Every structure is written in C-alpha cells, then in structure tokens.
C-alpha cells in the first residue's frame, strides 16, 4: 500500500501529517497533545503524550544521547554519492522489541530525505521527504488540537439491587 500526503513541521513541538488516499488520515501533534483522525477530521481521538515525547527527545538529544544510541543500536554510517545514510539496528531497549531496522538518509547539510522503518511484524514503512517550502511561514491554525480530558471514574449508582436508594 502506498500512501501519499503532506507533512508540515514547526519547530520541535508541532507537526501535522495528512494522507489523502486510499483513506484520509490526519495526525497533529502540538506541545504534548496528539490528535488522530482516520476519517478526514470528522471524528478525532485526542491523546496526551507530552511526557513520552519529552523522554524520547531526552533519549535522542539529551546529555547521554550518544551513550544511549551506542548501547541500544548497532550503528552504520555510509556516504552514498551526495547523501549520508544512517543505518540503526536495535539490539537492546524498547525499540528492539518492535523494530528490526531504521534507515535515515540525509543530504550533506543534514536535511532528511528518506526514513525507512522495518518492524518485527514484517511491516515496512518508507517516508520520502521532499522539502518544497523550507522556511515557509506556517498557519498556526494547521496545528490546532483538542486536548484529552481527564480520565473520569465510572459513575456509580447509589441504588441498591432492589432499586431503593441507600
């Protein structure tokens, strides 16, 4: 299956991914809130993922990032023409339970061009990245999200089994 869509990024705390066909999918992340729609926006699932994102950002870019990567991945870097390919094969940690390989292809100025992810379940995903408007001003409305409400405990009835109130 091939999905084509549009991916917009604004800094490190906002992105939007829209797929049109074969089924409309919209994913928006904004400062800890993740909204997912599988029907073009008519029904939206809202999730709070801020803490997980902070942990992930710390893992990959925090003070121990290099040690984390060297411990959890076999790493290969290759120059292929005018591109650089980073090949990560998980050997330990959470990622190793679900993913067998991640390949990121960059230009020499470190702009990403391709991301390949191969899962242990046999599913492979390829994201080809084309920068059509680098530095373009983004419309803030594109990143509007709904926040997940607090979890509510189930409503308990004060009626006893005979239908009488206590």
What features would you describe in this structure?
This protein is mostly beta strands and 166 residues long. Helix content is 14%, strand content 40%. The protein is built from three helices and ten strands. The strands form two sheets. The chain has a five-stranded antiparallel sheet with strand order 1-2-3-4-5, with no helix packed on it. α1 (50-61) packs across α2 (65-72). The longest helix is centred in the middle third of the chain and has 12 residues, at 50-61. The N and C termini lie far apart (58 Å).
Write the layout of secondary structure elements.
Blueprint: E1 4-9, E2 14-21, E3 25-30, E4 33-37, E5 45-48, H1 50-61, H2 65-72, E6 73-80, E7 83-90, H3 93-96, E8 99-107, E9 112-119, E10 124-128
Antiparallel strand pairs: 1-2, 2-3, 3-4, 4-5, 6-7, 7-8, 8-9, 9-10
Helix pairs in contact: 1-2
Write a brief structural summary.
The chain is mainly beta and 166 residues long. It is 14% helix and 40% strand.
Please name the defining characteristics of this protein.
outer membrane lipoprotein receptor (LolB), chain A, globular, mainly beta, 166 residues, five-stranded antiparallel beta sheet, 3 helices, disordered C terminus, 10 strands
